């Protein structure tokens, strides 16, 4: 490889080491240091992000969307059972969906992901 011309210097990069340093400097320059002054105004105060509450419509949509013959976990209850319990107009739907909504909302509010 021929010598590489350096615009700001009188000498060229002739050795392999000089060429590598020059190419690294040109193609992979050091990024400027980030200004983080606006992030930490008060290190003792944290901003807590509040999730919106879970509602019955979201719970019904999630249950309806689940594949009916799959088991969600160790309880081995197929999703079809959940769908039958949450089916609009069923006797259990009026109690089952609000109960699940309260449980899921509590998980979201405390930040727990089982």
UniProtKB/TrEMBL annotation:
Domain of life of the source: Eukaryota
Protein name, UniProt field: Uncharacterized protein
Organism: Penicillium flavigenum
